Amino acid sequence: MKSKINKRLAGIAVLAVIATVVGITIIYYGLFQRQVRADLSVSAKLLRDTHYFESVNIDTDDIDLSTDIEELRVTWVAEDGTVLYDNDASAKLLTNHNDRPEIQEAFTDGVGEAVRKSDTMNQNTFYYAVLLDNGTVLRVATNAQSLWSVFMSVAPIIILIILIIITICILISHLLTRQLIRPIEVMVSNLENADYESPYKELDPLSEMLRSQHTDVLAAAKARQDFTANVSHELKTPLTAISGYAELLEGGMVSEDKQNHFYHEIRKNADRLLALINDIIKLSELDRVDHGIAFEQIDLYEVAKECVNELSVSAKLKDISIDIDGKESSIHGNRELIKELIENLVQNAIRYNNPGGKVMVTVNTIDNSTCLIVKDNGIGIPAADQQRVFERFYRVDKSRSKATGGTGLGLAIVKHIVEIHDAKLQLDSAPGVGTTISVLF
Ligand code: ADP
What's the pTM value of the predicted model, to 2 decimals? Predict the structure, then answer.
């Protein structure tokens, strides 16, 4: 950033200097040309007013102006264009001057002017011609620097000025960038300080965004850490149990009549491990493929019916009745994930219910949006826990969850699937009354 600002400032300065110098040179050269012409016309008119060329009897050998007027070339031209006299070259060597525009102009208008590139590079010759009373024309000429040579003569100064200005610009830009960047650096180092106000108002949205991103990153890192710690803990418990039971069996320390119980415990803990690992895999898959999931039109009612049928056996075992109500309702979603979502909600409604309890699954349309409602009249969730039940591994009653095969990840998976489908989740629950969870697509 600093070097970019340096380069841009220096670039702007160089352009500004060049533009100024070119502009001033052109203006100056215009004035200079005008001055040269004015001087020439004065000289020509002065010479004319001396009536010297009208008095000399065309005996040009007598005329000698070369010593007096060195920078001024004086040419005297007869009516037919013949050069009668030239103080710079011998008149006899010069060709007829009738073709010279300034001479033609002088013959017709009384005065004539012209500028021509001189033989010597970088020089222009300015001509001014006046018609004398005797019909001849007197022309004066002088050489002056061309625009290019004027420009080149100031080039070393321009280069020097440019170098000085670039140095000054680099110094200024160093100071400026330091001043500009300093508050940004301070802002970055104060990202965690919510009270910090950035010195530039324009930076407020950026600092807000950075701060919230920073907070999100920290929160995500913390959640990952917590999750890893929780997973390790959750895996360790059943594994320790399995290892302990197996050790006792291996050492022949269990009487034959109790062995079956130990085998049962080992299997139960192994099932728990499997359930846990399955849920962890599901969650990590959901985290990973968030945006690459194939969506299709599916009938929510049909999927819900399938889940209810599959779970009705386990509901019956717990003396819980399960019913479904609604009609064909099409949604845009992933069938497998939707099935997972419904299964988790219905399983919970069975798991946290009382014998003789009821579970009702409804699929209907509310305000143009398809809605899935899973309602039970079970133990309910206390208000204080309602916000947290969707967190990973959060359980209201840990022992009940474990005893019924819960992993503490079911509702976290539900929440994730709901987010993927851009749907809304609603929880209504009261302890002792029951729980209703609605998903609005
Ligand atoms: P779990 O595997 O323990 O059921 P979940 O994430 O599915 O984990 O649910 C988290 C917690 O929310 C459960 O442990 C339970 O305490 C509570 N919960 C979930 N569904 C219900 C429900 N229908 N009725 C009462 N409590 C529920």
Answer: 0.61
